[in-house]
Amino acid sequence: MNPSLKIGQSASFLALVIALAFALSSCGISELLPGSGGIQRGTATPMIRPTFTPRPTNTAWPTFTPVPTLAPVTLVAPTLPGVITGVISSTVNLRAGPGTNYPVQTRLSKGTKVKFRGRDLESAWLMLVPPPNGWIKADYVALASDIESLPVVEAPPTPIPTATIAPSPTAMPTATPPMYVDFRVDAPYLPAGGCTTARWDVEGVRGVYFEGQGQPGHGSADICPKETHTFVLHVVLNSGYLDRAITVTVLLVPTPKP
Question: How far is it, in rounded angstroms, from Cα 114 to Cα 150?
């Protein structure tokens, strides 16, 4: 027999055996072969894959916008129409109207900067832009513009002068006369049944009483005592009292012997 033919047959037989082995392994040859002992293959536990969480998308940073540099603004005070400025050249009274007959409201010192919005018809007085509100004499202001450029402003009503009440004359105090007391009788001695007159002149006291009866400061009274009697003039002073007494003696006529 040809040797190459034997080799080819052997290779074919080997390939057939390998193919049969693969076929038996896929068909569970372990269960068909005797003496396998009933060996069972372990069951593989399927693994649960975690749910895929996508990564967050990166947020882009905002684009930096530079703040534009603002140019400094120079504020210029607006010039009002019909208004001029000036400087007080000497201390001056600020009055309620254009004239010295208006009351003084305050005083403006030298060097004070002011603005004016009007003038009187003669351009002698200037009306300020308030505050403060009032009028000043134009002679006391150094103006930055022509005074004629100001409008003429009507003056406020002239104030009514307040009536001056003459003071009441002060009454001169009444001079208090010095105290004076004079008490006398025309005849201190009388015959029985005789009469006389008591007289008094009193000044600078509060009251006069003769024998208990109120009397004027200058007066008199007729007295006819039946017997010797002491008459009293009671004088009330500003502080205390004073008594003056005069005794009138009645002379008894002796009875003639038979």
Answer: 14
Question: Would you give the DSSP letter of residue 233?
Answer: E
Q: Which amino acid makes up residue 182?
A: D
CATH code that applies to domain 180-251: 2.60.40.10
Q: What is the pLDDT of residues 178-191, one digit of tens each?
A: 888 899 999 999 99
Q: Where are the domains of the chain?
A: 84-149, 180-251
**Residue ranges in the chain assigned as alpha helix (H):** 3-26, 29-32
Q: How far apart are CA 11 and CA 3, in angstroms?
A: 13
- Given pLDDT bands bounded at 50, 70 and 90, which one contains residue 94? very high
Using a 10 angstrom Cβ sphere, with 0-12 exposed, 13-18 middle and 19 or more buried, the burial of residue 244 is middle
Q: Which CATH class is domain 84-149?
A: mainly beta
Which pTM does this prediction carry? 0.35
Q: What are phi and psi of 200, to 5 degrees?
A: -145, 150
Question: What mean pLDDT value characterizes the chain?
Answer: 79
